[in-house]
Amino acid sequence: MKVIFFGTPEYAVPVLDAIISSHHKVVAVVTQPDKPKGRSNKPVFTPVKELAVKHNIPVFQYEKIRKDDVSELLNIDADIIVTCAYGQIIGANILFAKKFGVINLHGSLLPKYRGSSPIQWALIDNQKETGVTVLKSDVGMDDGDLLISSSIEISDDDNAITLFDKLSKLSAELAIKALDILESGDYKYSKQSDDATTCKMLSVDMAKMDFDKTADQVVGLIKGLAMWPTAHMQIDGVYFKVFNAKKICGEYEKYQNGEVVIANSKQGLVLKCSDGLIEITELTPQGSKKMSAKSYLNGKKINVGSIAQSE
């Protein structure tokens, strides 16, 4: 099939690459406008645009696709539009322009976690399973009919960074499977059930670590916010970004919430939450690179009994 692909970040690159490598043909790519980056402040290509240019595929970039003139795009001969992490809401003029409409690769098992941050919220909510759903896009928010889906387990070590990578690769597999199914004509869409959940937008305020919450809540937030806005805390005046953690067993009743219970290079960094203990496993000290907490404690000291602050 002839495909127009909509996508922007690194997450969408494996999907575009898989379609390019298949017997289907990508006839155009739509991605977000180039944005300034680095000290030079020069505009840089989006990851999807980089791949499209490499393969000499025409690229379209719209500031506001629902308001801009898209007639040139719609005049391109294509059978279907495939979207994956594009970053803008698409209007009806595009949704129903091609024979097979628009299919979207969504990073959850719909109808659970509709919205813009489903991967993060699966972690925040301490889910054990997630996946990718291919749906036919409609005018609503991720409420279209379902074509296929595939699930994966969320491992104890996963955070948003690792789970994004896993689901990106799964999306690439499902994109080809979906296109093949639609091309064969042997398919049937199904309606979503009524028990839908919609995730809230992530915010900077969520990143302040609150040790008055339960261990599960704190660990979930750390994992879910690992890409952005990243959980943070201060201990003894040192600022840390925190990327991963795990709940552990141990005596906790005699400690204050946020208190450093253990801090050494063998046992790691352990803090008290409202109902138990967590071990911080991956962090970035201010002015340094990301590392394990044990590596940090191999050369630096954190005082047992200190209280971690959210600011």
Provide a descriptive summary of the structure in words.
By secondary structure, the chain is an alpha/beta fold. Helices cover 24% and strands 28% of the residues. Strands 5-2-1-6-7-8-9 form a 7-stranded mixed beta sheet. Strands 10, 11, 12, 13, 14 and 15 form a 6-stranded antiparallel beta sheet that branches. A two-stranded antiparallel sheet has the order 3-4. The model has no long low-confidence stretch (mean pLDDT 97).
Short overview:
The protein has 8 helices and 15 strands.
List the helices and strands and how they pair.
Layout lengths: L1 E6 L5 H9 L3 E7 L3 E3 L4 E3 L2 H8 L4 E3 L9 H4 L5 E5 L7 H4 L6 E5 L11 H7 L4 E8 L9 E8 L6 H25 L30 H10 L6 E5 L2 E11 L11 E5 L3 E6 L2 E10 L5 E2 H7 L12
Parallel strand pairs: 1-2, 1-6, 2-5, 6-7
Antiparallel strand pairs: 3-4, 7-8, 8-9, 10-11, 11-14, 12-13, 13-14, 14-15
Unreliable residue stretches: none
Please estimate the helix content.
10-25%
Tell the overall outline.
elongated
Strand neighbour order, sheet with most strands:
5-2-1-6-7-8-9
Number of strands: 15
Key traits:
seven-stranded mixed beta sheet, 311 residues, 8 helices, alpha/beta, 24% helix
